[in-house]
Specification:
This protein has about 150 residues and is of the alpha+beta class. The protein contains four helices and nine strands; from the N terminus they run E-H-E-E-H-E-E-E-E-E-H-E-H. It has a three-stranded antiparallel sheet. It has a two-stranded antiparallel ribbon with strand order 1-9. Strands 2-3 form a two-stranded antiparallel sheet. The two termini are about 20 Å apart.
């Protein structure tokens, strides 16, 4: 097992962390995660970072909100737990009511699902001081070749 920073986790590493947090039994097959054959079909992958059917129930249960970011941010999408506050127009602005993230504790990702799954496994206060998690060595070795 090796330590990784959650903000730098690849999709495969993040899928493994989500499976651990959700207590879902998966089998590591190379760098991909599969459900055991007796639980679902033999070929079904566990990939909540790409498969909304496997991640939407988590997003809804945990009340994770996502928003598309400007191009200068750390990722194209940001995610945060909890309800977002609506803001209205001021006398100097002309726009409809919109929602605004109000915390600095955002999780980022190249897609909304990756940002949401990072948000899901990210520790909450006070544990968030240490954003490092253990993942299997096989996922670290493969990440070096993907970079």
């Amino acid at each position: 097992m090796k330590m990784i920073n959650i903000d730098e986790a690849t999709s495969d590493q993040l899928n493994w962390l989500v499976a651990q947090k959700e207590r879902i039994h998966v089998v590591l097959y190379g760098t991909r995660l599969r459900f055991p054959p007796s639980q679902f079909s033999e070929e079904e992958l566990y990939d909540p970072c790409s498969n909304p059917d496997q991640s939407w129930h988590i997003i809804e249960r945990e009340e994770i909100s996502t928003i598309r970011c400007s191009s200068g941010s750390r990722g194209k999408w940001a995610a945060e737990k909890g309800q977002q506050s609506p803001t209205g127009s001021t006398e100097h602005q002309q726009h409809d009511e919109m929602f605004q993230f109000t915390t600095d504790d955002l999780s980022y990702g190249p897609t909304s699902l990756v940002a949401a799954m990072r948000c899901h496994v990210k520790p909450t206060w006070p544990e968030r001081q240490n954003p490092y998690f253990e993942v299997p060595d096989e996922l670290i070795i493969e990440a070096k070749y993907q970079a």
